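Backbone shape codes:
***
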Amino acid sequence: MHQLQEQLLLLAKGQDLGPLSLRQIAKLIGADGKPQIVKHHLLQLDKQGLLQVNLDENVIKPIKRGFNMPQAKRLFFSLPIVGMANCGPQTVFADERVEGYLKVSAKMLPRRKQDLYILVADGPSMNKAEVREGVTIEDGDYVVVDSKDVTPKDGEIVVAVIDGLATIKRFRKDNKNNRIVLEADSTENYHPIYISEDDEFQISGKVVDVIKK
């Protein structure tokens, strides 16, 4: 468990956090000036069934025997939106970059939900890429990414971070030339990105769904 989550859980067991603002809670746990980080970790504790968190109704309270709460019974999940990705720029994946949360029905998400995050597609470079039948990635769409799936197979759609910038592309392994190719899949003409297997770059997850904006 993240250190801040441990602090939040302990704090919630000792006092009612519901009436406090995120900024006030952040100050209590030594994260002064970082209310969005507090929000992120509160929602993570809610996902784990350790806290009941409803910020709209000022509810933050522990759940008894939280680890026994069946995740399947959760009706909605709040997925962190970590920024935009060009499908150019511009996301470094860290808690500090969480820009908000998208509440989504559990029925609309893959089975493993705790490792998902959201990127907002920026541009048309993947507007022919079908993530599921008939559903492509268009400008402004919410792209659902599995952060644990970082070893993609040839042809899968991934989020790659190059020079600190995120891009959504189709992953191709060019064994003949010992390189990786990141391809656009678009109605427009985009050049591919060529990466040596020795280059420093990061696969930050596989695209598993698209929520149309």
